[in-house]
Amino acid sequence: MERFKHWVAENADLSFAILLAVSVFTFFAITEPLFFTHRTGFAIMERFAVLGLVGLALTLCIIAGEIDLSIGSNAALAAVITVRFTDDWGAVNALLFALAISTTIGVIQGYFIAYLRIRAIVLTVGTLMLLRGVALFAAEEKTVMLTDFRIPDFISTKMLGYFSPASLLVIVMFILVGLFMTYTRYGREIYAIGGARKEALASGISLQRPMIIVFAISGFCAGLGGVIIGLRSGTAQALGLQYLLLAGTVAAFIGGVSILGGKGGVIGAAIGTLTVNFLNTGLVFNVTPAFMVQLYLGILLLVVIMFQTGSRVFDERQRRNQLLQDADRRRSILADKIAELRRPSG
Amino acid sequence: MTDATALADNLNVAQRIRRDYSPLVIAMVGLFLLVFVAGAIFTDDFLTWFNVKTIIRDAALVGIMAIGLTFVTLSGNFFLLSMKEIAALSIICFATLMSADWNQWGAAGADPTTYSLTMTFLVAFVATMIVATVAGALQGALIGLGGNPIVVTLGAAGLFFGIGSWWSDNLVVSYRRPHGAEWLGTGSFIGDIPNITVAFIVIAVVAELTLRYTTFGRQVYLVGANRAAGRATGHENFGMAIKCCIIASVCAAFVAVAFSGQVSSAHVNYFSSEFGSSGDMTIMVIAIVMVGGNSIMGGYGSTLRTSLGAIFISSIDNMMVLNGFNSGARVLAVGLMIVFSIIVFALVRRGSRAVE
To answer: How many CB atoms lie within 10 A of CB A300?
Structure first.
């Protein structure tokens, strides 16, 4: 029990995320009789496959102190490429080609951000439009479709009760990235350039390597998400998948990242995504239209941001008061000392 | 001091450009101009009075929004990702009030009089502006308190879009002609120049004068260029963010009203890329601000650049349409222009002074 308390105090954000996820799940499990069933569990894991990837990618970016706005476009591009070339080349080749392209895009973005020393939002808002253009070009402004529907069937076959090949793949991805972030030097460098960039650069970490790694993983995750969506639904639209950015950001922020960078982790990303998925799936049971889900997500994000900003302002004020109090105390001690020194002579 | 000023005044235009701008920027602007001129010469029907009018009218809607956004960018708050959602909320608000029966200001069944049309328009317009002001102030307050502009406006975008869809049940809200907004949407007072073009020019001039010659304008530049200095001299970002976000929102709402006046209906998706052909409105507006050459980090740029950027992008778009390109190629061209100008401006900044 003592250790548990200690753990909660240590990981306040993560405990909050777990609490939120559990309460959302419990709420829907009680109000909706069908929510806590095997099939719904499978549906949630299916959604987790895509949203989890985006949440993971955005979590990594925000840990590094940046944000990747082009994630939806990158996913749409990957989806279009995969679906379009599956008929000619076979699913595996098309998939690998799409992943290679989206990862390359990520690497190029990371390189330019580090080399030009600009904020990622500035560049990625440009690539957001550029990649939409490329995707439109690749799809010839049409909705591309598969002709062979055995592939979507394979992607959503049930395995081990709750999982499909897609969600298993994503879980493996989560574990790999988690291990990478915690146990390798490169992962810790990402935390370093996010939390304290100046100090990290001064201590000899190059900006380029962590940036490229972060954006490569982000591009890969976005591409994989796009590939899964494209192959599962059998269609892809160049202008689709715009909702991913908002949902992924909400997931990342619920998972406990700070906009200042350097905080958060893969477990948080998973829990944040699950919370968003519970909310999404539960709202579908209530026959909530899609735009209302967006409304709730927007409110959720604003509330989280408000809490974070509020706590930061509060902390700053607290620290300033502490500083002033310290100064006052020191001054009074000094005054006492001076008075003491003067007394014998006077 | 006076000598130096006199010397600076004596320089001719070419020398002054060489002094103020780096070769890279000059090269980029030259390249853009070259493409533009070549396109203008080799495209049939491009340089006709009718087409020029079309270009400026197309530029007007996004241009007005971009002018509003320029204030936010100049004050160092990056950009609002919720421009199109503010416009969507405003257009729903406007059209709902325009179509409401209680708002006809005349006898039921009778032909609407000019007075009733004007009053309906005024009520709807003022209500829309109030909604936009509240929306802007909400975002501005969150940004001013220290929230990241991108994340705050991403959340606000979801919120506004949701409210707009919920209010209109995700349906098209339409109202009958004649209505009080026709003069703004399709009318023209001066010859055959559309009123929306006139509004664009007036707003551009007013914005430029505000930025150059008023205290508020100088404060925008100060807060954007050096936030610490701004704070030290008593210009907190809190008030500035709220003011700038309100300006941007009101501009977006004005565009929404004008667009609704054109088509005499409204839907939340009117500004999304699913509806328009040349991409998402928000990104288009940000593209204009960037291609115009405003510094995204704030403190450098002007609304004049933004207006020119709007006209430039609009004419490139027009040129490509005349040459038979599809929407993919057009979005791609605008995307290339943004990325290109971002890289060039970043290279110049990297070479010119120490970075953070």
So the answer is: 22
Considering only residues 231 to 250 of chain A, which have any Cβ-Cβ distance to chain B shorter than 8 Å? 238-239, 242, 245-246, 249-250
A163 contact partners, CB below 8 Å, separation of at least 6: A42, A45, A171
Q: Does B143 touch chain A (CB under 8 A)?
A: no
Cβ separation A129–B330 shorter than 8 A: no
CB of B141 closer than 8 Å to CB of B242: yes
Under an 8 A CB cutoff, do A139 and B355 touch? no
Name the token pair of B65. 């929004």
List chain B residues with CB under 8 Å of A312: 146
Enter the tokens of residue A331. 């001054």
* Digitized pLDDT (tens) for each residue of chain B, 356 residues in all: 455 555 556 667 777 676 667 777 788 888 888 888 888 888 877 888 888 888 888 889 889 999 999 999 999 888 888 999 999 999 999 999 888 765 555 555 666 677 778 888 888 999 999 999 999 999 999 999 888 888 899 899 999 999 999 999 888 988 877 777 888 878 788 878 888 899 999 999 999 999 999 999 999 999 988 888 888 888 888 999 999 999 999 999 999 999 998 888 888 888 876 544 456 788 889 889 988 888 888 888 899 989 999 998 888 888 888 888 888 888 888 888 888 888 888 887 776 554 44
Show which of residues 81-120 on chain B sit within 8 Å of chain A, judged by CB atoms.
Answer: 81
For A158, phi and psi rounded to 5 degrees?
-80, 135
Delimit the domains of chain A by residue range. 2-288
Confirm or reject contact between A125 and chain B (CB < 8 A).
yes
The DSSP code sequence of A297-346 is HHHHHHHHHHHHHHHHHHHHHHHHHHHHHHHHHHHHHHHHHHHHHHHHH-
* The dihedral sign for the CA sequence B108, B112, B115, B120: positive
- For chain B, say whether A297 makes contact (Cβ under 8 Å): yes
Interface mutation vs chain A, best among B142, B145, B154, most A CBs within 10 Å: B154
**What whole-number distance in Å separates Cα of residue A191 and Cα of residue A187?**
7
Return the CATH number of the domain spanning residue range A2-288: 1.10.3470
Model-wide pTM > 0.95: no
Cα separation, A15 vs A18, in Å, equals 5
Give the CA radius of gyration of chain B: 21
Out of B78, B163, B338, the one facing A295 most closely (by C-beta) is B163
Q: What is the token pair recorded at A204?
A: 């000899």
A residues 129-188 lying closer than 8 A (beta carbon) to B: 129-137, 139-141
**Which of B257, B153, B250 lies closest to B196, judged by CA?**
B257
| Dihedral over Cα of B239, B228, A196, A213: its sign | positive
CA distance A331 to A60: 46
Our measurement of the distance from residue A253's CA atom to the centroid of its chain's CA atoms, rounded to an integer in Å, reads 8
- Chain B residues with CB-CB distance to A238 below 8 A: 328
**Among A27, A28, A63, CA closest to A218:** A63
Q: Which residues contact B148 (CB under 8 A, 6 or more apart)?
A: A67, A259, A305
| Residue A143 and residue A231 in contact, taking contact as beta carbons nearer than 8 Å | no
Give the ipTM of the model, two decimals please.
0.85
